[in-house]
Amino acid sequence: MDATAVSRADIAASAPVKVVARGVDVYYGDKHALKDVSVAIPERSIMAFIGPSGCGKSTFLRCLNRMNDTISICRVTGSIVIDGADIYDTAVDPVELRSRVGMVFQKANPFPKSIFENVAYGPRIHALAATKADLDAIVESSLRKASLWDEVKDRLHDSGTGLSGGQQQRLCIARTIAINPSIILMDEPCSALDPIATARIEELMEELKQNYTIIIVTHSMQQAARVSQRTAFFHLGTLVEEGDTTSMFTNPREQKTQDYITGRFG
Amino acid sequence: MTEPVARTLRMLPPKPTGFSGADVQQRLSQRRRADARFRAYGLAAIALAILSLFLILADVTGKALPAFTQSTLRLDVPVTSEHVDASAPKAGDYEATVRNALRGLFPEVQSRADRKALDSLLSTGAADALRHRVVADPALIGQIIASKALLSSDADLYVKGVSAKVSTAAGVGAAKPSATSGAVTLDLAPDALAGVLATDLAATTTAAAAPVTLDTTTPSLLLALNGGIVKITSLASGKAEGEILVPLTTADAAAAGAWRHILIATPETSRKINDRQIAFLELLADKSAIERHFNFAFFGRGDSREPELAGILGGLMGTAYTMLVTLGLCLPVGVAAAIYLEEFAPRNRLTDLIEVNINNLAAVPSIVFGLLGLAVFLNVFGLPRSSPLVGGLVLALLVMPTIIIASRAALKAVPPSIREAAVGIGATRQQAIFHHVLPVAMPGIMTGAIIGMAHALGETAPLLMIGMVAFIADVPGSPADAATVLPVQIFLWSDLPEAGFQSKTAAAILVLLAFLVVMNGLAIWLRKKFERRW
To answer: What's the 3-state SS for B406-436?
Structure first.
């Protein structure tokens, strides 16, 4: 049976589908990096992509906001439908798409500007705030949603790069929230953070899931098990298994998944 | 799942633990010695560099000091209607009025040769200040005006002690001249000029008792007494023969200390100023008529054929205009080219070719750019010859590769995560570059610009080709006016035979260095302003 159909049937009862990918192939030059991936992602939930290094999970994540377009040798085929529209359609402007599908990167990468400027940059280029007061309000609410406001409210004009690693990553999340996307992509957001900072980010994801669809790539299976509702396991460029997180970790359908989550390889 | 492969471990002999072994100690001390040696080399290199810099600066500054002061003669000049017509004060013969005022101080000077010697103490621009005053206020015509007349360069250098080695000393014992003018014999105390005879003139004597004969190839000895000057032609112990250059007031004996001798060690044939002129200058100095001031005119005038009138402002303004044109052209174009090549251009054969050519352009001899400027800007486009506009264009071409290479390196050094962050929240590529990448790369780009502009500032050869080497006395008022630049001005002055230009050359070098320091200081200040804490 078609994988998409399986997961759709699987999640139909719980939530409407936000993203549907069908037969996605990605090539880097001659290298076939992602092979025939089909998956459906439900709205207002957390989806985790797991798998060993080089399995294509980050590549697939970067297809969802067309970040791969910035790599000249990269070619994507297949269809990815978000909110009913194919994002690889020629009519879709990737810049507009990225304002709806925000991204948080592996290494916290705040702009070397003030905390305020970091958050205000997105609303400014997308003209989301008509007045200075509006902009202030967006910055404050974004920082509050990223649970960073109390720590930085007295030093909004200090450099964003002066924050600690965990704070910087939450600043990057605030920066993404500020443009009010419906989907947030997170590419191993906690890989450079200590357990306490990681716990704070995970709590934050739990809150954000009320309003946003979150797709997270992680190396940590525990993290996937803790935060996600659905999990997809990638291996060697193919999607091996996708399904409800609890059943996947307790009763995987595939032998390979079983081997990976029990630590036999990876 | 594969079973773990059983491995046999081959045991190595146990290594000595700790650092107590003799060979370990020896190796450690060798490494420490290598460290110390390396540090010593570094310190020696820096010390050498500082020493060289200090020597160069000290030498140039020492040579330049005379150019920063100028000597003027205080004269009461009667501006008569004979020389200056009240209806056209500009056309008046002010030179004659100043000349007459100076001659009035030496009424006894009548011969043509003597008058010429006296007149040549004054600069050809001696009357300029007076002319300005009278033209501004014609009511001064008919009055006697206290004026400051500029001395000629030769007189000026004598007053500053640059052109001749001069020593003076008060006379010992009385000196009795036999006459007040013409040839004269002087009775001196036996030991009056013993020191001069024994040391300064020792080389010219043959026998100890014979009188020493002085001529134009030996040092000159002048005696100032009774308000006049005697030039000694023959000197023996207690007796001297001479010729009176400026008549004495009386033939009475001058008491000890009331006269003095002036020994000019440089022979008359080896200097531009003769004994007669020195006599006039010494008497003028005795009357405190000669004053030395800071040479404001040096910073306020253009070039001149007369060293005392030559100023640096022409070259300075020419350099300023040229640098403005260069910077205004090569910074935007260079940075734009770097951004395109680094951020937008596809990687293919064509861009590779462009990259190789840019790198090669940086190594092209600068005179080739001058030839290009001559052929293209002057002959094809017909832009004004000798102008800072063309100079700036040529230097912009010269500097462009440096700026492009430095800017590309700076852009490449910006972490890609910044670009991703901006693109990831929906910035366009151009917004990501201009809002985030460029500000971070700015200090590096500024460094490239500083290096490039410093290079352009010192460049001489290409500017020779486009005619900026011409003698231009006017200060340029716009980039299209004929002008010269500081390094070319230095080159021109260093080539001139007049002694006065030696100090001007050194002073121009100092001005060029100061310009460089100011320009770079400004750029570094700007860079600090742009710099973001990372």
So the answer is: HHHHHHHCCCHHHHHHHHHCCCCHHHHHHHH
| 8 Å CB contact of B424 and A67 | yes
Whether B147 and B77 have beta carbons less than 8 Å apart is answered as yes
Closest among B262, B265, B268 to B286, alpha carbons compared: B262
The reply to whether B427 touches chain A by the CB within 8 Å rule is yes
d(CA B120, CA B308): 13
Which among B421, B427, B429 is the nearest to A109, CB-wise? Answer: B421
- Would the CB atoms of A126 and B421 count as touching at under 8 Å? no
B425 vs A176: CB contact, 8 Å cut-off? yes
pTM for this prediction: 0.81
Tens-of-pLDDT digits for all 534 residues of chain B? 444 444 555 666 666 556 667 888 888 899 999 999 999 999 999 999 999 999 999 999 999 999 999 999 998 888 888 888 878 888 888 888 898 889 888 888 888 888 888 899 999 888 888 888 888 888 888 888 888 899 999 999 998 888 888 888 888 888 888 888 888 888 888 777 777 777 777 666 555 567 788 888 888 888 888 888 999 888 887 788 888 888 888 888 888 888 888 888 888 888 888 888 999 999 998 888 899 999 998 999 899 988 889 999 999 999 999 999 999 999 999 999 999 999 888 888 999 999 999 999 988 999 999 999 999 999 999 999 899 999 999 999 999 999 999 999 999 999 999 999 999 988 998 999 999 999 899 989 998 999 899 999 999 999 999 988 888 888 999 999 999 999 999 999 999 988 889 999 999 999 999 999 999 998 888 888 877 554
B346 to chain A: which residues are within 8 Å by CB?
72
**Mutation site for B-interface testing, chosen from A61, A72, A92, A109 by largest number of B Cβ within 10 Å:** A109
CA dihedral A256, A259, A260, A263 (to 10 degrees): -170
Instruction: Kindly state the DSSP code that residue B58 receives in the 8-state scheme.
Output: H
